[in-house]
Amino acid sequence: MKFKIATLPGDGIGPEIVDQAIKVMKAVGKKFDHEFEFNFAVTGAAAIDEVGEPYPEATHKICLESDAVLFGAIGDPKYDNDPSAKVRPEQGLLKMRKQLGLYANIRPVTTFPSLLHKSPLRKDIVEGADFVVVRELTGGIYFGGKGRSEDLKSAFDNCEYSTEEVERILKLAYDYAGKRNKRLTVVDKANVLATSRLWREVAQRMEKDYENIETDYMFVDNAAMQLIQWPKKFDVMVTENMFGDILSDEASVITGSLGLLPSASVGKETSVFEPIHGSYPQAAGKDIANPVATVLSAAMLLESLDLLEEAKAVRDVVNRSLDQDVVTEDIAGDKKAYKTSEVGDWLAANL
Ligand code: IPM
Ligand code: MG
């Protein structure tokens, strides 16, 4: 079959890691007789430099016309320390999420046995942890009204959610839990926030329609703590935009494999697949970044196209590379560190 893949490498290490995912997808195409057409487009700081804005209309059009979007990373240090910058790379990411209606960000967190020693947690705490963070992605404080007072001495960011926004993300989270271990943890701050009380009210109503799924409720501060103490107790965790941003970063490092974790953002239009780590500017251009999170994002992309056997082939070859220590310097330890491009070549050749 033929598929159109919008390819948005973005900033920092984005281009290098996306290149490796493309190699692997081409190998999939060859093995399973598919044709992937990679249509490149700019986003982030790279797009600001080129056309003055971080998610240009031309890029959006390519995304809309594609079967899936393969995304690298966004962010550039030259904007991070400049609070007065008029346009920021991150605005491109938010605009893309909004315009494609990507209301759910799905971040599966799994442990890799050969990498448990990399976890900042004790092996017995983290071994076997396997859960999914479902983050609401187009609402809440990220997209509420924001601004400064006239005298610039105060600032505000509003957090708003509608019942409909809460229902659709909870439905997706329940469906995920139904396909997994049938436990859903709704994370909020209902002891303080009105939006959280709406989330809880909606969840308590919907809970009755999902009798086969055990729902529990947790305040976000407590969830942040329990993720560290008992990561194994979670199956699917669902939460609002900003809590999800914070908890998913926390969740990603407890397995010791930040460079290995993929994500999918899904919603109304074309879905976007990207590694959860950022643009890692210090490593840009050095051919040292770990491409596996992007390659596993490509596996999630293949699943979204219903290419299940193909996705499994990608996961299998990644597991073999880890078993055989064909890995980049972040996880090589005292063994030989392979280059980004060498890992990509190995994965493509051994698929
Ligand atoms: C993420 C990132 C983004 C976010 C930034 C880059 C705007 O941290 O995808 O988690 O906050 O959503
Ligand atoms: Mg984040």
Protein described:
The chain has 2 domains: 1-102 and 277-351, Isopropylmalate Dehydrogenase, CATH 3.40.718; 120-255, 3-Layer(aba) Sandwich (Isopropylmalate Dehydrogenase). A hairpin with a 5-residue loop joins strand 11 (262-266) and strand 12. The chain has 14 helices and 12 strands. The chain has 351 residues and is of the alpha/beta class. The radius of gyration is 20 Å and the shape is globular. The strands form 2 sheets. Strands 2-1-3-12-11-4-5-10-8-9 form a 10-stranded mixed sheet, with helices on both faces. Strands 6-7 form a two-stranded antiparallel sheet. The mean pLDDT is 95. The structure holds 3-isopropylmalic acid and magnesium ion. The site of 3-isopropylmalic acid has 5 residues, from helix 5.
Question: What brief labels describe this structure?
Answer:
manganese; 3-isopropylmalate dehydrogenase; binds 3-isopropylmalic acid; amino-acid biosynthesis; binds magnesium ion; two-stranded antiparallel sheet; oxidoreductase; Isopropylmalate Dehydrogenase; magnesium
